[in-house]
Write a structure and sequence with these properties.
By secondary structure, the protein is mainly α. It is 41% helix and 5% strand. It folds into two domains: 216 residues, no CATH class; 58 residues, no CATH class. The chain has a two-stranded antiparallel ribbon with strand order 1-2. A two-stranded parallel sheet has the order 3-4. It has a two-stranded antiparallel ribbon with strand order 5-6. Helix 5 runs antiparallel to helix 9.
Length: 297
C-alpha cells in the first residue's frame, strides 16, 4: 500500500473493494439493446441493505436517479447513503447487531444468498480470494482498529480478535464477509474517514467514471477459503401431504379390522414424522369421516 495514507475500513471502503469481486457484467452491446444484468452499484448496495433490514423496501423507479447519487456518495465515503439506505439508521443497525450476536445463522444465510447473486466465487480469477486478502490487509493498515477488536467472522457465529484475524490463513468466505461488513457499518465515526484511501484507489479523471486502480491485498499471504451452503426456507406442509408411517404389524391389524367391520372405522391414528412438525406441534388422533351416512342414516 501507499505509505503515509490513513487507510480505514468503513462502509465506503468495504463497498469499493466488494465491487471488484462482482460477477462479470454485460457488455456495451447488451446494455445498448436494453438488457440489464442486475449488477449495478445501486443494485448491489440495495442488496446489502436487505442483509441489514430483511424487509427493506426498494425505492420506486422514479427515485433511481437519487439512489444512484446516494450510492456514489456512499462509495466515495461522503456520507452513509442518505435516507434511502439504512447504513446511518441507528435503530436498523442496532437490530442488525443483535441479529449477528443472537441469530447468526439467519444473517449468514442472507449474506450467502447475496454472494450467490452478486459475487464471483471459486473461479480461476479468484476474485473472492483477492477480496478477502484486500480486506485483511486493509484491517492490518488501519491503526485505529485495536488488536483486541472483535470480528464475527467464524462460521458458527463466534468472533476472533484483529490480532488473530491477521495471523489466520483460512476463512469461510461468507462468514468472513459478514463479519467484516458488520464491523464496517457499525463504526460510529463519520463516513469521510475512508475518503483518503478511496481517492488513492479510484483517482478522479474529470467527468469519467472513477475506476479502481488499487493493489491492496496483492502482496498479502495466500489464503484458503471454504464456503457455506444456502439453507432454503422450509414451508409448512398441508395435512394431506403429511407423511404416514406404518409398520407391518399395523398393516395386519388394519386388515383384520376391515374383515370384522365392513364399515370403515370412525377414527384413524396418524404418526407424523419429526418433532414439533410444521403441521402440528403434536398429533394424537385425527378424526375423519370416511364417507357414508352419519349414524347409519
Amino acid at each position: 500500500m501507499t505509505k503515509n495514507v490513513k487507510f480505514r475500513l468503513c462502509g465506503g471502503t468495504f463497498f469499493t473493494l466488494l465491487l471488484e469481486a462482482r460477477k462479470p457484467r454485460f457488455g456495451v452491446r447488451e446494455h445498448y439493446m436494453g438488457a440489464s444484468d442486475g449488477l449495478s452499484e445501486p443494485n448491489v448496495l440495495m442488496a446489502l441493505a436487505s442483509v441489514i433490514v430483511q424487509d427493506y423496501q426498494k425505492p420506486s423507479q422514479s427515485m433511481m436517479n437519487t439512489i444512484k447519487g446516494n450510492t456514489s456518495d456512499y462509495k466515495q465515503c461522503k456520507n452513509k447513503g442518505g435516507t434511502y439506505f439504512p447504513f446511518g439508521d441507528i435503530n436498523a443497525l442496532r437490530m442488525f447487531d443483535l441479529k449477528i450476536k443472537q441469530n447468526y445463522g439467519t444473517a449468514l444465510n442472507e449474506i450467502a444468498i447475496f454472494c450467490e447473486k452478486f459475487i464471483q466465487v471459486q473461479d480461476s480469477i479468484k476474485k473472492d480470494e483477492k477480496l478477502v486478502k484486500a480486506l485483511v490487509e486493509l484491517i492490518s493498515e488501519d491503526e485505529t482498529i485495536p488488536d483486541e477488536q472483535k470480528f464475527y467472522v467464524e462460521e458458527d457465529g463466534s468472533y476472533i480478535s484483529k490480532k488473530q484475524l491477521l495471523e489466520r490463513c483460512y476463512f469461510c468466505f461468507q462468514s468472513f464477509l459478514l463479519g467484516i461488513f458488520h464491523y464496517s457499518i457499525m463504526r460510529q465515526e463519520a463516513a469521510n474517514i475512508g475518503r483518503e484511501p478511496y481517492d488513492i484507489w479510484c483517482p478522479p479523471k474529470g467527468r469519467a467514471p472513477r475506476v479502481y486502480e488499487g493493489n491492496v491485498g496483492e502482496s498479502w499471504q495466500d489464503i484458503s477459503l471454504t464456503y457455506v451452503t444456502i439453507v432454503e426456507p422450509v414451508e409448512a406442509k398441508n395435512v394431506e401431504e403429511a407423511e404416514v408411517v406404518s409398520n407391518e404389524e399395523d398393516i395386519n391389524k388394519k386388515e383384520q379390522v376391515k374383515e370384522n367391520n365392513p364399515r370403515p372405522a370412525q377414527q384413524m391414528v396418524i404418526n407424523i414424522t419429526g418433532n414439533n412438525n410444521n403441521v402440528y406441534g403434536h398429533v394424537d388422533t385425527v378424526n375423519n369421516v370416511f364417507g357414508g351416512k352419519k349414524n347409519d342414516k
